[in-house]
Amino acid sequence: MSQDEPHPLTPSPLRGEGEPLDQLQHDFFNLVADSPSNSVTGDENGFSSALSTQHSALFQGLGGESDRTAALALALTPRLGPILLSRLLQHFHSIEAILAADPAQLRRVSGIGSQLSAAIKSINLKRTAALIKRCAADGIGILLWFDVEFPACFRRLPDLPLAIFVRGTLPASDARTIAIVGTRQATPDGLQLAQTWSQELARRGWIVVSGLARGIDSKAHRSALDASGCSVAVLGSGLNQVYPPENLALSAWLTHKGALISEVHPDNGVTRGSLVLRNRLITAFSRAVIVIECGANSGAMDAARRGHAQGKPIYAPPNSAGNQLLLDSFARPLPATADELIVELERDHDPADG
Question: Which CATH number does the domain housing residue 240 bear?
């Protein structure tokens, strides 16, 4: 990823208004430690099962266009993530009841304070309905957490996105996907390595997933497409505000030979937080992660840690300080050839993971 500076591992949607971040970090890391996914070869389903009860209310009795409009409005409410929305649904039993509740009633739910209750009460369903129509006209698909088409790999996340926006065609759930990530300040050797691996894997039918950032990410996307393959970009900005702007043409190419995905409102620009959060989606969408080249405190390092927590195999060559740190911790050495890597991935792959 693109930000070569320290990033927190814990995604911010886990935090609710009025709840200390330290406590939620403690809960999050306890779940990781107690889960089979806390190993390179673990099954990410074990991670999600630890939270299945907590999120169960998210999937009860939802559907219909009115529910979709209200659900999207809630999904786009700042600081209202899956944990708090699940608590609201457990308390009020329906989205309509949440929106009908007064601020005092909303604040009876743990984690809902004055700011969040005010944000919920300010929801304008007509504006949300207009956004849905505009997205349809702009070729942007909207998938909500309870939709059948919503990627199962995202639904298994403890901090699942409540809505994703898509341009292009999402790969099938059983598609062979692999993340190729790295630093913005790539060396010539790093760029060449990204090109080689992206092209070799794309020629063998693998879909390259990355973050559309400058440097390694952009090289990975372009190289896969140059090889007549497919690629998926997970953005840290809205789909109408492609970042970085010089990748606008590349993003258009990706919509024809893959997809763009974002959990950010289509008209919103990039933020540091959204860049960090998209890392969990990049790794969740992939069977494995190749870190081409990264610094010791980089966005790619964050992606590797998130992928490792999800139980994904992480690969890296020993060509940078960050990569060496990964290899000393939990990463596997990158095999010599794409064929060797594919044999290893196919051998270890559990079809239940998609």
Answer: 3.40.50.450
